[in-house]
Amino acid sequence: MTTLLDTDLLPATERLDAVHAVYEGQSPRRSVVVGAGPVRHRVERLPLGPDVHLLQTGGSALRIVRTPRQVRADAPEHVAIGLHRRGAALVSTAGTDADIPVGHLNCVDMTRPYDFVHRTANSHDVLILGNRQVGVSVDVVRAAAPALPRSPVYHLVRGHVAGLYRAARGLGPEHRSLTGQATAALVRALLTTAAQSRGMTAAMDDALEARIALYLDAHLADRDLTVERVAAAHAISVRHLYDVWARAGHERTPAQWIGERRLQRARERLRDPDAGRTSIGVVARQSGFPDSSHFSRRFRERFGVSPTEWRAAGGRAASR
């Protein structure tokens, strides 16, 4: 284990240059753009045998960029498998952007330029492996990258990566190398099975949309039900959730759908004679609204009458 950088040990005037140097001095090379404010960053490197190493990084907001020139200059091919532990992050490559949820694996093809943005204070583990060591082609890596959660060994590999630094840092060189070989085999299984799953994308998206809709219905009463929470519950990014939702033909966004379902559920409860003694405030909370005034305003906007008027009319008031 080698500490490549710890800015806490450096004078403030030297920290920015040190951050640039540590990323540009690694192989494969990358550049960084450091966010505004005090610079604080730590990078530890754990070698795991030939062409396999683990980086454990953390610190203040920054942007890691691999440029076209760096791609052309570097050889051989590498792939990065990251585990995002803390902070908001976004990766952009090949014209697509993807949020990186905390606790999820991500895959970056290092034979392409990319832009990895840590928008807040962060903590991130990343395995960097040679494609030859893993035994996969660039085409397999590119097919697998957006489909990692579909692999049947995704959770196995995620758990392995999560515990790898702690388990391997006390090992001698021989056992570290053996651990690296086992890690490369797991990554190969992850990438090849994820790449194969791409042929089943449409069917899996249909099933995923159905699971999301059921999840939303089951959690409508939770006032902290957010798109981010739904995505995390299904091990997908927010962007992928929106894509699946749109492909399923929904005219409303997930957030709009939640609001509409809550109003419809509340309206049905107000119509139910058995719930006649339940206060408007209780109905509002049971339907996921923060308070009765907010609920009443939304109800009137949607149906043209107040909840009290709707109930008094026995659920027969005209809606719009």
Automatic annotation (TrEMBL):
Gene3D superfamilies: Homeodomain-like (1.10.10.60). Keywords: DNA-binding, Transcription, Transcription regulation. Residues 210-313 form the HTH araC/xylS-type domain. GO terms for molecular function: DNA-binding transcription factor activity; sequence-specific DNA binding. InterPro entries: AraC_XylS_family_regulators, Homeodomain-like_sf, HTH_AraC, HTH_AraC-typ_CS, Tscrpt_reg_AraC-type_HTH. This is AraC family transcriptional regulator. It comes from Blastococcus xanthinilyticus. The lineage of its organism: Bacteria, Bacillati, Actinomycetota, Actinomycetes, Geodermatophilales.
